Amino acid sequence: MSARPASAAAAGSRFRAAHEADWARLDALLARAERHSVRALDDDELLALPLLYRVALSSLAAARATSLDRALIGYLEQLCTRAYFQLYGPAEPALAQLLRFFRHDWPAAVRAQWRETLAALALTVAGILAGYLLVRGEASWFYGLVPDGMAGGREPGASAATLRATLHPKGARDMLAVFAAFLFTHNAQIAIFSFALGIAFGVPTALLIAYNGLSLGAMIAVFAGRDVGVEFAQWLAIHGTTELFAVVLAGAAGFRIGAAFAFPGRQERADAALDAGRGGAVVVMGTVIMLAAAGLLEGIGRQTVDGGLARAAIGAVMLVAWLAYFYLPRGRDGAR
């Protein structure tokens, strides 16, 4: 009669000895996650967590099936419940996610694509120069490069007085508001399509970025041809530094997808593009915020700030602020 309880106790001891190390490790990981958050675990620990959870579930099922002691079953039930909550419980609060996006996710994603950003910037500058030279050499190029909504009377043949009048909001606030809405829509479309079409080896992205530069260069040529180029640059700067930066970043995200698709390395093409697309999506979400800020500067700031130097100063401050936000080093606190 006493042989069976002794045999059951021995089986329980062997079972515990075989799996106790995994249970203890899972318990330790859960304790750290509960004290802080899952982000307190490093990458290897995050990968181990679901595996250890499955081990604990299997152990619990075996313990119940073989009627091992109730204390062990209770311990495993509690362990599995804690692990389930950490893996599948409610996500972190929306405010915490939003703070993490601004503190770490967005700037980290931008920094990760610095090479593509330089390429998109170079293409934008080349487009501006090409558009400027084309229109200065032959004014009819302007009508093929600049959409009607963007021109708005700012076209070859307009006098210096007419062009200068479009740079100041006196009696023209409704017109400038419409123009601001057009610019926001136009540049938002360029940014989103530059990212989305990157999957085609980045070729459509390059064309869109170049076209955006060409249209801007054509506008500069018209104003510079009437000796109003400096005033136009000041007029543009108050919102243009933010807006053009956003388009460049979105184009860079498209280039990153295109490069990953063209040169996937050891990954499958789809997997490589998907990995690049995750970071790119974060960047593009941020560019929408930048474009909204540019729209506010366009629709409010530029219409209430009429001085050329003040406009240029605001544009310069915005550019420095964006560069500092994205590229200044951050400590480990911002990394998690």
Overview of the structural elements:
The model has no long low-confidence stretch (mean pLDDT 84). The protein has helices at residues 3-35, 43-65, 70-88, 94-112, 114-137, 141-145, 148-151, 160-165, 173-196, 203-224, 229-262, 269-304, 308-327. It has two domains: 3-90, no CATH class; 97-335, no CATH class. It contains 13 helices and no strands. With 336 residues, the chain is mainly α.
Mean pLDDT: 84
Q: Return residue spans where pLDDT drops below 50 for at least 5 consecutive residues.
A: none
Order of helices and strands: HHHHHHHHHHHHH
Structural class: mainly alpha
Number of helical regions: 13
Distance between the first and last residues' Cα: 59 Å
Number of domains: 2
Beta percentage is under 5%
**Fraction of residues in H or I helices:** over 70%
Number of strands: 0
Main sheet overview? none
Overall body shape: elongated
Radius of gyration using CA atoms only: 30 Å
Give a quick precis of the structure.
This protein is an all-alpha fold and 336 residues long. The chain has helices spanning 3-35, 43-65, 70-88, 94-112, 114-137, 141-145, 148-151, 160-165, 173-196, 203-224, 229-262, 269-304, 308-327. Helix content is 80%, strand content 0%.
Any key phrases for this structure?
single chain, 336 residues, mainly alpha, 2 domains
Please describe the topology of this protein:
Layout: H1 3-35, H2 43-65, H3 70-88, H4 94-112, H5 114-137, H6 141-145, H7 148-151, H8 160-165, H9 173-196, H10 203-224, H11 229-262, H12 269-304, H13 308-327
